[in-house]
Structure formats: C-alpha cells, structure tokens
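Hi Y.,

Following your request, here is the sequence exactly as I used it, all 398 residues.
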Amino acid sequence: MIKNFRRWWMRPALHGPDDTAKRVTWLELFYDLVFVVVISRLAHHLGLHPDVGGIVSFVLLFVPVWWVWVSGTYYNERFETFDLSFRFFVFLQMLAVAAIAATAEEGTGRTASAFALSYAAARLIVTLMWWRAGRHNPGVRPVTNVYVAGFSVSIALWAISAFLPASPLATGLRVLALLIEVAVPFLTLAAQRRVFTGTARKLPERFGLFVIIVLGENLVGVTNGLADVRAFSFVTLLRFVLGLLVGFGLWWVYFDNIGRREPAGTGGSLRLTAWVYLHLPLVMGITAIGAMLAHVIGLHGGAVEASVRWILAGGFALSYLCMAALTWTLEPEEPELIAPTLSSALRIGTALIALLLPLLGVPLTGLLAALVALHLVSMGVGVRAWFASDHAGRTDVH
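Below is the corresponding structure, written out as tokens. Let me know if you'd prefer a different format.
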C-alpha cells in the first residue's frame, strides 16, 4: 500500500502539447450537476424579480458562480489527474458549490453572508489546487504564484464581507474581490504563453456542456410556465411552442457556428482568453431568457409584462452579440463556411432588431414570434452555406 502511494495520490503534472485527450470524464459531468442546481435557483430568483434590482442581483450572483466553474475547469485543462487526490478535491468543490446553491437565491439579501462564505470556501479549494500545481511543477510558478496571491486577496475580501452587516461597504468589497479575480489572469498572459504551450484539450466540450446547462433553463422555464397555467388557451399553447423554439434556436445557432469549432491560440493568447470571457455574458443572457419564459406563458398584460419583454429581448440580444464577438476568437476552418465579417454582421443586426422590439411595444406573443423569426434567418443562412460547402455529407463534421 505504502509502496503504491503515488499511484493513488499523484502529484499534479502539466499536460503538454502532445496530450490531446479531449474526452470529458464522468466525474466532470457529475460535477456539473451541482451547477445545474445553482443556475436553476438564480434563474428562479430573476423570474421572481423581473426588474432592475433583480437584474443587478442576478449579475452579482451569477459572476462568482461562473468564476468558480471556470477556475476549476481551467485547472482541469492543465493539471487533471486520474487518482484519489483529484476526486477528493472535486468532492470538496462540490460541497462548497452545493452550499452556494443553497444560499444563491437570496445571496444579496437574507443569505448574503452564507453565500459569501460558501463562495470563499469554493475559491479557497481551487486556489489550493493551483498552489499544489505550482509546488510540484516549478516551471509554472510564474503563473500559479500570481494566481495564488491574487485569489487569496479576493478570498479574504469575500470572507471579511461575510461578517459585515448588509451595506454598500459589504457589496463593494465583493465587487472589488470579483474585479481582482477577473483581472488576475491578465497579469499572467505572457507567462502563460511560455508555460502553457498546449492547445485547448477539453475546453470546447466543457464550455459547450455549460451552455447546455443554461439552455436547460429555457426548457424548465417553458415547462413551468405551462404547468402553472390554470386555464389553457390557444395563446398559451402558442407561446409554449414559440418559447421552445426560442431555446431550440439558441442551441442551433451556437453549436452550428461556435460550439463545434476550436478556440484559437494556446494558453495566454488574447483570443483564447477572449473566448473564455465572452462565454460569461453569453450564458447570462441565455439564462435570463429561460427565467422570463415562465412568465411569458401565462402573462396577460400588466406592469410586469413590460419588464419581461425587455429582459427577454435583452437576453436574446446579448447572446447574439456575444456570438458575434466569439466568431473572431475561433480557429479558421477549411473550407470556410461563412465569412467572419458576414457572420458577425448578421448577429449584430439580429441583436439590434431584438432590442427594437420592446420599444415598438410588441406584445409577448408577437415578441416570441419575432425572436423565432430572427433565429430562422441565422439558421437559414447557416444551412444554405453548409450544404453549399464541402462539409455537406461528411460524418466527421457536424
């Protein structure tokens, strides 16, 4: 047993450029299930508070949840091992994220302190993993030392804020802590380019799975909305179908144009970094859409309808704007399906039209129909380009 210690408690070792394994493990899929719960509770909170205050709370809570997931995912990309130590640390992360899920819905109110401590614990575990990676891989310390120092400051700020009464000071400390965490990786870009020479192994699939998680909230929103309706009508059923089509269109446009392709560059490149960061507003926008769809099914006028229209159209526009920007962060494909200029222009135009719809006072049913129509334009352009290209008929490309 002692002799085989290093087989079941391994030292983290940096994956090199020759390590091209891309299969997401069952443990990673299981780990993501905890985030399904967190995202669901955040969407539910936004659904209950479709106003400016609800949006602010949603953003302040969503960003740290996303950052926990990204930090763990990026660590796995570079140092994942297949032993008991890795499972131990993943379980600790799941405990902390489960606590985040339990406190997320009132994370800026009644359970703000518990949320802050849960988040600090989750970040502490991931930071410890980065410290351990640097300890056993001296060559990566120019990156890991900065990570550990910067993230430790952020963790301290979150912990301090948990013991302060609800106030602008406590909120300010948490916002400052998040800004530090978001900024720290940019301080290491040059060092990352030297030490992280491998391309993305599993990042495209991992990020695609997270997009699937938030798209699931669209299905939850539509289904819950229909389940809560007391009297069915043609309008209710029409909105149900249109709501499903909105989510289906988001899946179609993202995975046909973004999710199936590799991000450009290696660790530390600006394009890969932009690819990672742009997914944050993308998944926030998709989650906001799902949160509003439950309202859309059963609303029949009133003050809430105006805010629901704006959040729904805004989430849709934000998603398309992010996909427009993501187009420029991808590896060029051969043969080129759609020129990046045309693709991004189409998505920017789609986003602008979506934002015009609430200004025109389009009712909810008409708004849903218009969003589906906008999807159909992008889907039609993509389908036409696909079947006109050399990709058509291939079984190795989807």
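The chain has two domains: 21-195, 203-387.

Thanks again,
Q.
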